[in-house]
Design a protein that fits this description.
The chain has 361 residues and is an alpha+beta fold. Among the domains are: 5-60 and 82-136 and 311-344, Major capsid protein gp5 fold (2-Layer Sandwich); 139-214, no CATH class. Helix content is 22%, strand content 37%. It has helices spanning 15-34, 73-77, 102-107, 110-136, 231-242, 255-262; strands at residues 42-43, 48-50, 53-59, 84-89, 92-101, 139-148, 154-156, 158-159, 162-163, 166-174, 177-179, 182-185, 193-196, 204-213, 220-222, 250-253, 268-269, 282-286, 289-293, 302-305, 311-326, 331-344, 350-354. The strands form 6 sheets. A 7-stranded mixed beta sheet has the order 15-23-20-16-19-18-17. A 4-stranded mixed beta sheet has the order 1-21-22-5. The chain has a 4-stranded antiparallel beta sheet with strand order 6-14-10-11. The N and C termini lie far apart (54 Å).
Length: 361
């Protein structure tokens, strides 16, 4: 397989034929090397399908026990027929495209094409990472609107009557105007809320668009010090997973939280342990788990998991290319697509840390 650098040595009058046949495989390989999310999951290719959807089976637990000599093991242990439940994953399509002029095609200008392809690899990997992070964290978004009375200073963030740990607040408006004068209680054992910088002067309408998680609250940790991720928070998240007899392996966090950790003397930079790297984007270790940083993680939130048990990644359709001539601009458009899916299969293998956002209280 030729690399992008080697394409310059290829002599062909059909440059547009070369891209689908050669570059798609090169790009697919390099996206795989860049994408973080898929490296956090167990890749599955043997599938049960129904139309657009893919099914996975989760098996319940069995029991072992002490049995006296000559005793009936079935009577001693009871029913041992494990229950099975299904997990449904609906794959999504991710796409990107670029345009090159006929001059680039005629001149076989590989440098210009490479610039386009380098950017394309990044944006596809980023989009895939964001999707997979959201799937693993069981993230959802909503807009909550309510009428606040005069002198109100807070607004509860409750989804359909249920308090959910908040991951990110996108925007807040009061009386029809956006405001940044607020702070957020992201969880606090079931009391997420917005705290306004000033009390309302009269009865007003307020709305908040925010992201939350439907992961079991038993797997949620709120940082001990609002606005800062600390070593003890990571230990507590790891403990939540270990209590389920599962070993945590990876911690994924935003750049700001990485900046918090790197100042801790217990953080070990990956350069100090050589080539023993487990996942894409790994930057170090702390509290026995590998640390990965990504700008597609929710700021102020960290995700911990066992990558072999928590979730699955399904490459439904690998990267493929289509093209379209554009006579009006004397050029060609190249379209790149992939279809992928991801889903949680074991919540006990996941923990989320929240409350490290800069506006947390």
């Amino acid at each position: 397989m030729k690399t992008l650098a080697e394409l310059a040595t290829v002599q062909t009058s059909a440059f547009t034929d070369l891209l689908p046949k050669v570059v798609s495989d090169v790009i697919a390989r390099e996206i795989h090397e860049k994408a973080i999310g898929r490296s956090l999951c167990k890749e599955v290719r043997t599938l049960l399908k129904s139309g657009q959807k893919i099914w996975f089976f989760k098996m319940g637990t069995l029991t072992a026990g002490r049995v006296s000599e000559g005793a009936d093991i079935e009577s001693a242990l009871g029913s041992q027929r494990a229950t099975f439940t299904t997990v449904t994953v609906t794959p999504i399509k991710i796409g990107a495209y670029f345009v090159v002029t006929q001059e680039v095609i005629d001149d076989f200008d590989v440098d210009i094409v490479n610039l386009h392809l380098d950017e394309l690899k990044k944006v596809i990997a980023d989009e895939e990472d964001e999707y997979i992070f959201h799937q693993i964290m069981k993230a959802a978004s909503t807009t909550l609107s309510t009428t606040l009375p005069a002198n109100a200073t807070t607004m509860s963030l409750v989804v359909d009557g249920t308090a959910r740990p908040v991951l990110k607040v996108d925007r807040v408006s009061v009386a029809g105007s956006l405001t940044t004068d607020y702070s957020v209680r992201y969880w606090n054992d079931g009391a997420p809320q917005i705290k306004f910088g000033a009390a309302t002067s009269s009865t007003v309408q307020a709305s908040v668009h925010f992201w939350y998680t439907t992961l079991a609250t038993s797997q949620i940790v709120e940082v001990a010090t609002a606005g800062q991720l600390g070593y003890n928070d990571i230990v507590e998240a790891a403990l939540k997973i270990r209590r389920n007899k599962i070993e945590p392996q990876v911690l994924v966090l935003y750049y700001d939280e990485y900046a918090d950790l790197v100042k801790d003397e217990r953080f070990i930079d990956k350069n100090k342990y050589g080539g023993d790297v487990m996942v894409t984007g790994e930057v170090g270790k702390i509290a026995g788990v590998r640390v990965v940083q990504s700008d597609k993680m929710f700021p102020g939130t960290a995700l911990m998991l066992n990558r072999e048990l928590a979730a699955v990644y399904v490459p439904k359709k690998p990267l493929y290319i289509k093209q379209k001539e554009e006579p009006a601009i004397d050029g060609v458009k190249f379209y790149f697509y992939e279809r992928v899916g991801a889903g949680v299969i074991k919540e006990d293998a996941i923990a989320i840390i929240t409350g490290a956002q800069s506006n947390a209280i």
